[in-house]
Design brief:
The chain has 171 residues and is mostly beta strands. The chain is built from one helix and eleven strands; from the N terminus they run αβββββββββββ.
Length: 171
Amino acid sequence: MGILLAFLVASSAACGGKTTVDPSGGGGGTTTSGSSSTSSTSTSTSSSGSSGCDATSDCPDGWVCIFDKGECAPGCGDPCEPCGAGEGCDECATGSCPMCEDCVAACVPAGDGQCDDHTDCATDEVCIYGMSECFPSCTSSACADPNVVCDECATGSCPCCYDCVAACMPY
C-alpha cells in the first residue's frame, strides 16, 4: 500500500503542467508535462477584415488594437482627417495596453446620429463637428421643429473649414 501511495504522489507531481505566455502577445503557448511538450499559436480575423490583435504592434501602421474586441482599427484624433463613412472617432476607444487606463483614439462604427463628417449624416442633416452629432440642416432661417433655432454658422463644410453651414440647433 505504501508503494502504491508513493507511486500516486510521484505520478501527480510529474503530471503538473506549466504554461507560459508569449511576451510579444502572439497568443502562442507551450505546455510541458513530463518530458513531452506541445506548442500552439492562434490568430483571428474580425468581421471587418482586420487582423486580430493582442498588442498595437500586431496592427498595420497608423492602426491601434481595440483590446476588448481583439481587433485592429484605424487610429484617429486629428479633427481635420475624419474617419471613413459610417465611422466616428472615439477619443477613448482603447488604451495603450490591455489593462492601461489611458485613452487612445480610434475610428469605430458610428452610432445613430453620430458623425465626424457630413457623409455620416442623412441627406437632410449636417455634422456638427465639435459635438460629433448630426442635426437637421436649414437654409431659410426656419426649422420644422419649433423647439430649435436655425444657427446660420453651426458648423463648417469640413472638419477644419472656417466657412459656415447652417443647422437647426437646440436653444
